[in-house]
Every structure is written in C-alpha cells, then in structure tokens.
C-alpha cells in the first residue's frame, strides 16, 4: 500500500496522514499491446526529458525471455506515445560477450560536462548480471564503454556531475555471502570506465523491516537545494513471495557518503491490481523520474509486476518535507 506521512499530534494519539504519490486514472500507461512487434512484457523504463518531450528507454522482454531496450516518446509523458518500430538498443554479444543473455533496467543521466547522455544498464552475462555504461547524444547511436563492474552487480546510476573532481556511481553488488545482506554501494572514477574508492552508501536493515536484507537504487539521484534525493527499493521476503517497495534517502551535496535522512516507512508499494499481479507479482520498480521545475512536479515511471509501465506523481517539496520528518541515520540506528 502507499505509505503515508504520519505526524503524531502533541498530547494526542491522533495522526495526520498524507499520501505522497498519486496514481493517474490512465495507469498503466504502456503495455506489450502498444508494441508493433511481438514481445512478452514491457517494464522498468529509464526516463529523461529530451528535446522538450519525455523519453522513456523501456526494458522489453521478448518471447525468448531475453531483454532489450526500446525508445518511447511523448509530449506530455502520459499519452500518445511514439514507440520505435524495432529495438532501439539491443545486446551485442559478439563484441560485448557480457551481454549474452540480454540488457536490462537502464538509468539515464545527462552529463553536462561532456554534453552526452549516459545510459547505465545491467548486462546479463553467463557469470551473472553486471553494470555496463553507454553514451549517446541522440538515442539512435550508442558508444558502449563496456562492463564497468564484476558480477553480481546491478541497480546502478550516475550522479549528474562530478563531485570532489570525480564521477560517482551508485550500484548494488551481491556477494556469495548474500545472507549477510545486499547493500547500496558508491564508487568513484576519473573516466567513467575504471572505478575505485568503493564504499557502502546505504545498508539493508535487519529483521522484519520492509527494506531488510536486500536493497537497491531505483532512479538516478536528483539534485535539490537540500541534497541529493535518492529513491531506492527494499525487498521483503514473505511466505507468499517477495514484495518490492520504495523508500527515500537524502545525501549531502558535496559529500554523498553523508546520509542526511532516510525514510523508515516505504513510501510507494504494490496496491493496484496491475502492480500486484503479473509476470512477477507485487512489484513497483522505477528506473526513471522527470522533474518539472516550474510546477515542482515529479513523475516517477515504474515497472508494474514486471508486466506493464505506470506512473506516480508527486512534488519535490512533498518528498523533501517528508524526509525532514524522518530521523537522521544515527538516530534511526539507535532505535534498532
């Protein structure tokens, strides 16, 4: 269900509830029925504003079970999607063998310093999923930088500018000792290819929490006046299967390793039938969001049950106001 901001009134057991996200009536906005060539499902889209339009780079699973990426463009980000007639960005296993079993879950970031869009995506290799990067100026021609992390690693995106003279990449490695937790890491680079200075950024919680044991980044970090806004997912395993839900964190602008705030509740989770039933039940999984500075509106584009694409709407102010109510990480840790 949608998590609600809860503010306990002084001297009373009453609470004030406020929904952070609104689902438009048109959801889901895209499905396999909108594609002109045969596919199984469409989900987990990256999102960027491009030439005045909203551009989605959609994960498309074909009828073999392998994924590629296809571009969909809309003037208002909701209707009249213009979808490429064939795959926009496909696996190239001949030249990049790490893409043998497809490419998945892209995130797009505009890098103003080099005047290019960076697509960070998961390449599915025989050794497991890993992080790859490609650059483009027009979403027609792509320059692959190749694999930049070892398997198993995914859920990756770049910060939109250099910090402390380095590029920063958020990603989520999984070690053989998965029982000890899968956490969100950050690494630094001079050239977008060779990465070092690896640090855990957010740790999965323990026990019964919604984000215990396994977490990962969703959308690219959004720069705000108060810090980098982070949308991430937690996976809770239940007797009926896993549930994917979303939380928020706020990072210091010039030192993202300093986590200023982190939500205790999930702020968006499976609620509607198209999110609860599909190829993978009980999943909301965004890879992109669009911010309109004039209206302060944020549209979050997400995969619903690994089957279709939906959108949730909020404002940057609402998310930041919510985070101010959340404890600082050291305060939260003292409660565990």
| Average residue pLDDT | 92
* Range of strand content: over 45%
State the name of the first-level CATH class: Mainly Beta
Cα shape: globular
Please tally the helical runs, counting DSSP H or I stretches of 4 or more residues.
3
Query: Helix/strand-derived class?
Result: mainly beta
- Proportion of helical residues: under 10%
Q: Low-confidence parts, pLDDT < 50 over ≥5 residues?
A: 1-17, 332-336
Query: In total, how many domains does the architecture comprise?
Result: 1
H/E topology pattern: EEEEEEEEEEEEEEEEEEEHEEEHH
- Under the CATH scheme, which architecture would be assigned? 5 Propeller
Number of strands: 22
- CATH topology name: Tachylectin-2, Chain A
What is the rounded distance between the termini? 24 Å
Which value, in Å, is the CA radius of gyration? 19 Å
The major pleated sheet works out as: 5 strands, antiparallel
Determine the CATH superfamily: Glycosyl hydrolase domain, family 43
Question: How are the SSEs placed, and which strands pair?
Answer:
Elements: E1 4-8, E2 15-19, E3 41-50, E4 53-61, E5 67-74, E6 82-83, E7 103-111, E8 116-125, E9 128-136, E10 143-147, E11 153-158, E12 167-173, E13 184-189, E14 195-202, E15 215-217, E16 222-224, E17 227-238, E18 241-251, E19 259-262, H1 273-276, E20 284-292, E21 297-304, E22 308-315, H2 316-324, H3 329-333
Antiparallel strand pairs: 1-2, 3-4, 4-5, 5-6, 7-8, 8-9, 9-10, 11-12, 12-13, 13-14, 15-17, 16-17, 17-18, 18-19, 20-21, 21-22
Structure description:
- It is a single chain.
- The chain is mostly beta strands.
- The protein has helices spanning 273-276, 316-324, 329-333, and strands at 4-8, 15-19, 41-50, 53-61, 67-74, 82-83, 103-111, 116-125, 128-136, 143-147, 153-158, 167-173, 184-189, 195-202, 215-217, 222-224, 227-238, 241-251, 259-262, 284-292, 297-304, 308-315.
- The chain has a single domain, classed as Tachylectin-2, Chain A (5 Propeller), CATH 2.115.10.
- Helix content is 5%, strand content 47%.
- Strands 15, 16, 17, 18 and 19 form a 5-stranded antiparallel beta sheet that branches. Strands 3-4-5-6 form a 4-stranded antiparallel beta sheet, with no helix packed on it. A 4-stranded antiparallel beta sheet has the order 7-8-9-10, with no helix packed on it.
- Strand 11 and strand 12 form a beta hairpin.
- It is globular.
């Amino acid at each position: 269900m949608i998590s609600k901001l809860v503010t306990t009134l002084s001297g009373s057991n009453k609470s004030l509830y406020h929904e952070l996200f609104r689902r438009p009536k048109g959801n889901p906005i895209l499905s396999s029925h909108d594609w002109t060539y045969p596919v199984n499902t469409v989900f987990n889209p990256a999102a960027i504003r491009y030439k005045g339009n909203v551009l989605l780079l959609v994960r498309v699973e074909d009828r073999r079970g392998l994924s590629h990426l296809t571009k969909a463009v809309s003037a208002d980000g909701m209707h009249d999607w213009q979808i490429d007639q064939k795959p926009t960005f496909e696996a190239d296993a001949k030249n990049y063998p790490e893409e043998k079993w497809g490419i998945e879950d892209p995130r797009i970031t505009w890098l103003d310093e080099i005047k290019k869009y960076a697509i960070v995506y998961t390449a599915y290799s025989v050794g497991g999923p890993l992080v790859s990067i490609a650059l483009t100026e027009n979403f027609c021609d792509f320059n692959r930088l190749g694999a930049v992390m070892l398997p198993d690693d995914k859920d990756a995106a770049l910060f939109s500018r250099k910090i402390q003279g380095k590029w920063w990449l958020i990603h989520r490695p999984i070690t053989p000792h998965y029982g000890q937790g899968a956490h969100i890491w950050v690494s630094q680079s001079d050239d977008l290819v060779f990465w070092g200075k690896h640090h855990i950024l957010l740790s999965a919680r323990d026990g019964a929490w919604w984000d215990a044991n396994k977490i990962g980044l969703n959308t690219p970090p959004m720069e705000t006046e108060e810090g980098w806004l982070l949308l991430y997912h937690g996976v809770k395993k239940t007797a009926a299967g896993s549930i994917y839900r979303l939380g928020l964190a706020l990072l210091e602008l010039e030192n993202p390793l300093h986590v200023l705030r982190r939500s205790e509740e999930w702020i968006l989770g499976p609620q509607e039938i198209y999110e609860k039933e599909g190829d993978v039940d009980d999943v909301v999984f965004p890879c992109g969001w669009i911010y309109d500075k004039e209206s302060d509106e944020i549209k979050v584009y997400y995969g619903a049950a690994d089957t279709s694409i939906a959108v949730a709407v909020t404002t940057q102010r609402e998310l930041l106001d919510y985070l101010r109510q959340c404890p600082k990480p050291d305060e939260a840790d003292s409660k565990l």
